[in-house]
C-alpha cells in the first residue's frame, strides 16, 4: 500500500515541531553560555548561530502556516500538495544545510590551524550542492506537485543536491575527527629513552568526537540521501525533522566552544602536562613536562 504524502508530511511536521522545541532550548543555552563566558567577540560564531536559528525558525514558521491554512481553508488531503509557501519552506531546508556546512567548515579551518587549503574541496562541494537544490522546488511544482517522492525526472538533480553536501559532511567529519585524534596523542621519549605516546584524555572520548566532528550531522544527511535515492516516502519525514537536527548538531558544537571545552581549546590552554616515572635507584622520581611548543622537558 502506497503511503500518502499527506501522512508523511504530517508525521514529519510533528517530528520537526518536537525537535524545534529542543533546538530552541539549546539555542537559548548557547546564547547564555557565549555571554557568560565572554565569547561575545567571536563574531563568526555569533553570526552563524543566529543565522542558523533564524533559518530553522523561518522554516518551521512556514510549515506551521501551511499546516494552519490547510486545516482552516482546505481539505487535509491537500496538505502535501506543493504551494508557494511550502516551496519556500522546502528551500529553507537547503539554506539551513548550507549554513550548517559553513559552520562545520569554519570549525575544521580552526582545528587545522587556520589552513585554508584543507577546506577548499569541501567548500566547493557544499556550494555546488546548494546550487543543484535551488531549481528543484519550481521543477517539482511544474511536474507533479502531489508526488510523495521526487518525480523521476528530477531524481538525479535531487540526489546530486543532497549527495554533494553529504560529501562535504564526510570530508569535514573525517578531517576534524582525525585532527582531534592526532592532537590528543603526543609522541615523546621517556626517561629511559623509549618512545611512548602521551595521550590527552579529552581526545579519546567517543561522545566528544561525535559532537565536535559533526558526525550526527553526517549520519542524518547519509540516511536522507539513501531515502531519496531509493525514492522512499520516508524521505519526506526526514527532510522536515532533519532541518532541526542540522541546527541541533551545530549548536552542540557552539556550546562546547562557548564553554571552552572543545579539544583544541583544551590543548591550547594547557601550559604543561606532567607525569612521574617510577622511582630510580636513588629513590627519587623524575618528572617530565610537556609544554605548548610540544617539547618534552625532564627534570
What can you tell me about this protein's structure?
The structure is a single chain. The protein has 299 residues and is mainly α. It contains ten helices and five strands. It has helices spanning 5-36, 43-73, 84-111, 120-133, 136-143, 155-183, 206-212, 215-229, 234-259, 263-269; strands at residues 185-189, 195-199, 272-276, 287-291, 296-298. The strands form two sheets. A three-stranded antiparallel sheet has the order 3-4-5, with no helix packed on it. β1 and β2 form a beta hairpin. α3 (84-111) packs antiparallel against α4 (120-133), α3 runs parallel beside α6 and α3 runs parallel beside α9. It is globular, with a radius of gyration of 24 Å.
Write the layout of secondary structure elements.
Blueprint: H1 5-36, H2 43-73, H3 84-111, H4 120-133, H5 136-143, H6 155-183, E1 185-189, E2 195-199, H7 206-212, H8 215-229, H9 234-259, H10 263-269, E3 272-276, E4 287-291, E5 296-298
Antiparallel strand pairs: 1-2, 3-4, 4-5
